[in-house]
Write a structure and sequence with these properties.
The chain is α/β, with parallel strands linked by helices and about 220 residues long. The protein has eight helices and eight strands. Strand 3, helix 3 and strand 4 form a beta-alpha-beta unit. The longest helix is centred in the C-terminal third of the chain and has 14 residues. The two termini are about 15 Å apart. It binds D-xylitol-5-phosphate and zinc ion. The site of zinc ion (ZN) has 6 residues, from strand 2.
């Protein structure tokens, strides 16, 4: 994988919501490739976050793709509302969804990009049957629900396995990592095969600001001279 082509997807879960619009505009200037929106319902994960109104507001403000990470028990119920709000892609968990194929079909029928997310304890093999029909795989490198957790190195062998599955079954599919990505861990994730990195705390909690944080993340992925 050419490290320079790695895409960065800042997660606004860690943003300062009083200044969300300004921070997203700054991220666009700083070269963010997409905005990652974590949607939690307090059931699928033990936390609540944001809903479609945030997406609707951001849609008016930015041309960056808005990527929705659904951590909710019933993604099918909320899909249309988020489509209408202006979302560009949907990442849905394999866990707890008895009708994952149908959910993916509904996303594609809305002409949106579809991705499947797997938690740290979920085996890569669950992707096999859906890989040909999806645009992204998101491997969680923390247990979902909260920002600011430690990157789980134990997930790296699985990331390498998913890379091989994607190369064999659907090379156009993106491999994205989410959770604990920072200057130290990002190079490991990319070496294991990731081509998109989500980062919340590493982008928004940097005391030099989000532009500096984005630059540092890009730098840590550049090959050594
Ligand atoms: C966790 C979310 C992540 C989170 C990442 O459940 O899916 O997207 O915002 O935050 P950091 O980068 O702080 O681990
Ligand atoms: Zn996420």
């Amino acid at each position: 994988m050419d490290r320079r082509s790695v895409k960065l997807a800042p997660s606004i879960l860690a943003a300062d919501f009083a200044h969300l619009g300004a921070q997203v505009e700054e991220l666009a200037r700083a070269g963010a490739d997409r905005i990652h929106v974590d949607v939690m319902d307090g059931h699928f994960v033990p936390n609540i976050s944001m809903g479609a109104p945030i997406v609707r507001s951001l849609r008016k403000l930015t041309a960056l793709p808005l990527e929705i990470h659904f951590m909710i028990s019933d993604p099918d119920f909320f899909l249309d509302e988020f489509v209408e709000a202006g979302s560009d892609s949907f990442l849905v968990h394999g866990e707890g969804n008895n009708n994952l194929h149908r959910t993916l079909q509904r996303i594609k029928a809305s002409s949106k990009r579809a991705g499947v997310v797997i938690n740290p304890a979920t085996p890569a093999s669950v992707l096999e049957e859906v890989l040909p029909q999806i645009d992204q795989v998101l491997v969680m490198t923390v247990d979902p629900g909260f920002g600011g957790q430690h990157f789980l190195n134990v997930t790296m062998p699985k990331v390498r396995r998913v890379r091989k599955m994607i190369d064999a079954l659907n090379p156009a599919c993106e491999l994205e990592l989410d959770g604990g990505v920072n200057l130290e861990t990002a190079p490991f994730g990319v070496a294991a095969g990731a081509d998109v990195l989500v980062a919340g705390t590493a982008v928004f909690a940097d005391n030099q600001g989000v532009t500096a944080a984005m630059n540092k993340l890009r730098c840590c992925l550049e090959p050594a001279a």
